[in-house]
Amino acid sequence: MPPKSQRLAARSMAFVLAGGRGSRLHELTNTRVKPAVYFGGKARIIDFALSNALNSGIRKIALATQYKAHSLIRHCQRGWNFFSAERNEFLDILPASQRYNEQTWYRGTVDAVAQNIDIIDSYDIEYIVILAGDHIYKMDYELMIQQHVDSGAEVTVGCLTVDRPEASAFGVMAVDEKDRITSFLEKPKDPPGLPDDPDKTLVSMGIYVFDWAYLRERLHADLSDDASSHDFGHDMIPDIVSKGKAQAHRFEESCVRHTPEAPAYWRDVGTVDAFWKANIDLTNFDPDLDLWDRDWPIWTYSELVPPAKFIHDEKDRRGTAVSSLVAGGCIISGTEIRESLLFTQCHTNSYASLERVVALPYVYVSRHARLKNVVINRGVCIPEGLVVGEDPEEDAKWFRVSPGGVTLITQDMLDRREAAK
């Protein structure tokens, strides 16, 4: 067992659950799991949970994968290969591999941890932080671990403070004056208010801290329970709340802000609208999510590419980008770009215009294209003269138009459109 003089993070590990498909992102997750979806110009969604663990001082990390994991595994192998086994630090990737029996993959979030008990035992840790790998936020997990130790709880649950009407879509925590969880309610019609603010309530972030010895016993019991759905939110957490001691940890107490006045930033980018908006929000003058913070960086795989290049300076043919983020390797050739985010190696051509566009890596935009309120999947070639974002009915014939009016474009959609001509 590590010496008690070590900080709590050094005696802990992070177990990141990264197997969920993210079906509400539709074609964006056809070839990749949700945590592997691109975000912020060069990162992936998974980088936020992993960076939070690393920046918090946690150097033992396990990543459980299942659905279409190749893109995620490749990203981690290339961008997260700097851990040193000699210093007892690592990122272990744990794909679902029928370790329990020959018929069973990961059956739920609890089962994903339970099937790897022997591996976690080998890490020689005292505390385990269970994380979802598909949210955008900055958080110091050691502060949550410290509260867990100080409170003597059997589980500590990371919670967001939200307005009561919004809480009906989440798992809700009713708490007492000391934030001990008194009941767990799944999507209640009338969420309970907080003791210190009746108009607010706490909802689960899917982040849990346990003493490993305690969780280990619970996992063995769950493995043998045929009535369990093997899920933390549906089974284990409600059971601990009803029979033991569960503590709520408020996100605002450990979130990492770039200024003291900044809001506690957390986003679930699980729909096309939410994904588009969170990326476009980064183009604001002072975005709530600070990607430039050198004290709490978002680590990721950085492809070796040249700087972005802007060319042509003629009337109606000027390479410009206003209130936009343009990643390395991009060539903006005679294109007007506004309030947009272009990932690595995008290439746009003369007389085209992009407004509030999120273009994933290796997108090619041909001449005279006009795009507005669009998400473009990786590697798509936009044909010459394509106009999207001006006629929703026409767009919906060929592309996916979200409830919020954002158009998602993939190469398959463009190919079907071309074949129909």
TrEMBL record:
It catalyses: alpha-D-glucose 1-phosphate + ATP + H(+) = ADP-alpha-D-glucose + diphosphate. Alpha-D-glucose 1-phosphate binds at Y106, G171, E186, K187, S204. Residues 14-283 form the Nucleotidyl transferase domain. GO terms for biological process: glycogen biosynthetic process. GO terms for molecular function: ATP binding; glucose-1-phosphate adenylyltransferase activity. The keyword Transport does not apply. Involved in the biosynthesis of ADP-glucose, a building block required for the elongation reactions to produce glycogen. Catalyzes the reaction between ATP and alpha-D-glucose 1-phosphate (G1P) to produce pyrophosphate and ADP-Glc. This is Glucose-1-phosphate adenylyltransferase. The lineage of its organism: Bacteria, Pseudomonadati, Pseudomonadota, Alphaproteobacteria, Rhodobacterales. The gene is glgC.
